[in-house]
Structure formats: structure tokens, C-alpha cells
Amino acid sequence: MNLAGVLAASTTTAVLVEGESDRAAVETLAARRGLPLSDLGVQVVAMGGITNIGHHLVALGGQDVRVGGLYDAAEERVVIKGLDRVGLRPFVATTPLADLGFFRCDRDLEDELIRAIGVDGLLALIESEGELRSFELLQGQPAQRARTTTQQLHRFIGSKGGRKERYGRRLAQVLPLDRVPAPLDAVLRWAA
To answer: What is the pLDDT of residues 155-171, one digit of tens each?
Structure first.
């Protein structure tokens, strides 16, 4: 993988995230906190899926760039394998990945944001986006009826092209700053 043209020449810290919705959320929250990521030499890189982490770590290995990121709990083995592949993880298996700059979301970043904002807050956001009727239609689908509202909301956010990235940004915009999910808070503190 060649990251030429992807990383700015001024990048000294790369924050690896799975996709564009995660990148949008991280950048939006950083802006809300007054963290000028580009001025700090920080660039958030959407990898196009966690399975690409090994390729990104190899590509960044030859550069003088500090690397960290966010990942989903279910994908921790993929992150460990990638870090091991490039020699970034000490051989002590008990070393927490957070000590290496990689922070775990329970399910995924959207789920962390949904829990922080709450069902009512997210429903209000969906209504303000003019999509409440679309959400209600999703809820009525046979495959969704037995699911919790939180599960339905998670599905709704990822159910239409472009919606996941838009809601990644919007969730970070409406997130109460005193309820920032721990992994998102930690990666921004680490990066800055």
C-alpha cells in the first residue's frame, strides 16, 4: 500500500480508523474541542475496513509518524496481528493496546455514540434530519421487530449509502461534551 497522496507532508501522528463515519466523528469532535488536528500534525486515516490495518501499518512503518487508532472489540485480534506484523507490540501479551495508542470501542464507534446520546436524543436527531418516517418503516420490517430500539437505530444509521458517514458527523456534533465515549476521548487525548 502506498500512502503517498493520502498523508499530508506535515503529518506526525496518524489516527487509524475503520471507515469514513469514524473519521467524520473523530474530526468533528476534535473541532468541537478546539483541537486543530492539522496544525498539530495529526491526520485521521480511514482504512476502508479494519482488515486493512496491517497494510497501513506497513506503509507507515518507513515514515517518522506516530500511529494509533480506534478499533471494535470484536476485531482486536486483527489489530494485534497487524501490530505484531510490524513489530509495534511488545511481546508481553498483557500490554494493553491503549498503551500503544489503540483504543477499543465495545461494539463500534457508532454504538458508543448512540449510548452516549441516548435513544431519545438520537430519535430527536433523526427527526431533525427529516428521516423519522424512514426509521419507523425500518422498525416495521419483520427482521427488525424483535430487536431493541438501540439495535434498530444502529441498523438504521448503516442502512443507506452515505448515511453512516453523515450520522457519524452529526452524532459528534450533538454529543454532550461531558458524555464523550471513553475510547473517543482517549484517542483524541493521545493524538493531541
So the answer is: 999 888 889 999 999 99
